[in-house]
Amino acid sequence: MMNIAIAQSGGPTCAINASLVGAFKEAFKESSIDAIFGSVNGIEGLIENRLIDLKDMIKSTRDIELLLQTPSTVLGSCRYKLPDWHDDARIYEKIVENLNARQIGAFFYIGGNDSMDTVNKLSQYLTEHNVDIKVIGIPKTIDNDLCVTDHTPGFGSAAKYVVTTMREIVRDSLVYSIPSVTVVEIMGRHAGWLTASSAILHHLGESAPHLIYVPEAKFTVDKFIADVRQEMSKRQAVIIAVSEGVSVPEDVLSGVVDNFGHKYLSGIGKYLEGVIRNEIGCKVRSIELNVMQRCSSHLASLTDIKEAESIAAAGVRCALNGDTGKVMVFRRISDAPYTVSIESVAADQIANKEKFLPKEFVNGAQNNIDDAALPYFLPLIQGELGLIMDQGVPCHFTIRDSILS
Amino acid sequence: MMNIAIAQSGGPTCAINASLVGAFKEAFKESSIDAIFGSVNGIEGLIENRLIDLKDMIKSTRDIELLLQTPSTVLGSCRYKLPDWHDDARIYEKIVENLNARQIGAFFYIGGNDSMDTVNKLSQYLTEHNVDIKVIGIPKTIDNDLCVTDHTPGFGSAAKYVVTTMREIVRDSLVYSIPSVTVVEIMGRHAGWLTASSAILHHLGESAPHLIYVPEAKFTVDKFIADVRQEMSKRQAVIIAVSEGVSVPEDVLSGVVDNFGHKYLSGIGKYLEGVIRNEIGCKVRSIELNVMQRCSSHLASLTDIKEAESIAAAGVRCALNGDTGKVMVFRRISDAPYTVSIESVAADQIANKEKFLPKEFVNGAQNNIDDAALPYFLPLIQGELGLIMDQGVPCHFTIRDSILS
Prior knowledge:
The structure is a homodimer.
Chain A: E1 2-8, H1 16-28, E2 33-39, H2 43-47, E3 51-53, H3 54-57, H4 61-68, H5 90-101, E4 104-111, H6 113-128, E5 134-139, H7 155-173, E6 180-186, H8 193-197, H9 200-203, E7 211-213, H10 221-232, E8 237-243, E9 256-257, E10 263-264, H11 268-279, E11 283-288, H12 292-295, H13 302-320, E12 326-334, E13 339-346, H14 374-377, E14 389-390, E15 393-394, H15 401-404
Parallel strand pairs in A: 1-2, 1-4, 4-5, 5-12, 6-8, 6-11, 7-8
Antiparallel strand pairs in A: 2-3, 9-10, 12-13, 14-15
Helix pairs in contact in A: 1-13
């Protein structure tokens, strides 16, 4: 018999709690696993010994259903980067002490490429020090920028939000009888996956977005203005999707840097709105989809939620089979019918790396997404959750604030 | 036999097309009405003789179902203010000429307080000139600021979006183990109805929003900072709802110039974000719900959509009964069970006027909404549409762009 621990990390998505459910359910039915702990605030919970008993937290099928429709991380999150253990092993010793004190034999970390760095370092440390605790990474990120895996849990729901909302913005933009431009800013610092997913609208008969700019394509302000002018010659209301990370002249956007050295970007949409106002002078507005694109569980993709459960359950099987230092990945077998398999790869193939849009997804003019990309995106946004509502509002699963603070 | 015309005006909502459906269906089953025209871009369509045959446009129950889940105005909109006809009657003569040419005996205008000015002026002109064409106003606005009526179609769906999204933002805000403030900017230049509706979350067991600022309450930046500090002493993640129209010193929201010398208008949310960063120095972000709060039909309130249909149908009955220059209104009979009647009032009681939050809806400290307000808001967000989906995305009803341009 052993106990296990699960933690959630990085930026919120709609599917992180579904992965918690997937790991929990798989562990619950496994006779060799006794207690299932949740580490509060990701790896910080292991360091500071803040763990809660998930069997006390998740007590019914209704709890599970609520978790599946609750965005963000019910156990809290962190942006904590483990030091190199050759330089400083004290944090690692603390983690091992806390894991051993609770007879935890496997740790599952649901997170993005930064969190997979934690999986990589911690599993290496444990192996080198002959500590038999398995460490397995469960991928998640709305950015869809993890290497090896076909896609990441959380991305499909975010894409479904982007496509649905973009279509509603299109309707909103068509009402007046004067020319107008709408710039929609979508998350994605280096990879344009989420912005590119807005091209699904083309498959649904919409001409919008008329221009799509991703960080992988060449971008200049002069070319942008020329593109907008050309679209305005063809239609009254021009709708533009732009990744937050499209490269504009330096120091246009604020330069706050987070713990991982990521530049905190804000304002490409607002910036391009200003460019259009000054250079073209038409009615123009910018819309930032902001955190709604990562937390709108009421629009979650059923495919995404189910896959987030499955990949976490597979992670538990992987640890039980004796693996460690692995990250679970999807491999796509076919687009239609949509089929994926779940496999595992060494964490160092994923940690701290980014996957970018393939060249063939971007059109020749570098200002839109090629139709060739659509079979990749379409299956990921299919299906809806049957939401549990209370008084007209989707319910969420919550634990006492005091547990998280 | 007579023909009728319907037009849509002002800012988009999720319920304007439902009112089009309500008027269309009522007219369709009425033997004394023959053709049903739609005027493109509101009153501009009547002036410029841009009318389309709605029986050609709406041909099936599926078309009707799609219209009910399509945001914005399928017939386009306008922001056109009729001149005083004593000063300049030419526009009015043009309208009468176009209405008479098509034997239109009644005109229904779906819009907000500006549009009701059009209803008022046009009906007065027609009466004074003995032209027997009825003009009836059908209310709509997410701002809920029309006088006399208990509430306006469009508001309930916007409120449902605000409450649902605010709850998701709460989950998104609770994840990290450091103090943070989230400022959510909600539409409402002069009236705080939509911002106030976020207080429904209190009824659902959420402590957030912890602070709610509406234009009707006194607001000073110093008091705001003190309020935020006090909330931060009680909890890790402070969530604030603020109306775009909360009054701040005049020069702060305009005239901001970016690094390239581009002037851009900053919203109240961004402004307050800056205030908190500078004065308190904690992690802070602002989120503008932007046009999503008025066009997110995927989250429409069924109560709102059904009422938008009913009030427009009642408008058709009102004209058939010989009334003109009237606006249809809801009168609330009881909160629970929720019951409203539909009546009509003279357009001049509504045109160009605004209705504000009652004093008793705002708390004593002027920084939140009193629980006494909740029975008013709650019934308006109840129920959901069963959405028609295509490939994972809600479908919309559209007519050819060329008709609208």
